[in-house]
Amino acid sequence: MRLLTHNMLSCNIKGVTNGFPLRLEVEKFVEKEVDFSAEFLRNIFPKIEWKALVDASRSMGYSQLPDEADSSMLDSDDFLKKFHHALLELHLEEGVLICPETGRRFPVNKGIPNMLLHEDEV
């Protein structure tokens, strides 16, 4: 699961008002090379919750992203490469996504998050 995907997921348990961002517990992650597209990064940047991306990438041991970012940084090739790596090339293979409000744990196996809710959570 790419961090791009993680940045779009939230906990949808009935009654949860603060289900984003899901915390990561990383058991295994891999780096997979992806073709670089500055245009894609510039277009997706406004949709990304920056702090959630920074925290998730740091949980995978990647600390190259700045604490804060704004659109003026999109002119920097160095910034775009670091953003690209964190967003698209870091993949959570095995671990857990944790709801920040309830503590509910959603397993990630072979890169696929299981976000299915129990009957009493719907």
UniProtKB/TrEMBL annotation:
GO terms for molecular function: protein heterodimerization activity; tRNA methyltransferase activator activity. GO terms for biological process: maturation of LSU-rRNA; maturation of SSU-rRNA; positive regulation of rRNA processing. GO terms for cellular component: cytoplasm; nucleus; tRNA (m2G10) methyltransferase complex. Signal peptide: none annotated. Pfam families: Trm112p. Interacts with TRM9. Belongs to the TRM112 family. This is Multifunctional methyltransferase subunit TRM112-like protein At1g22270.
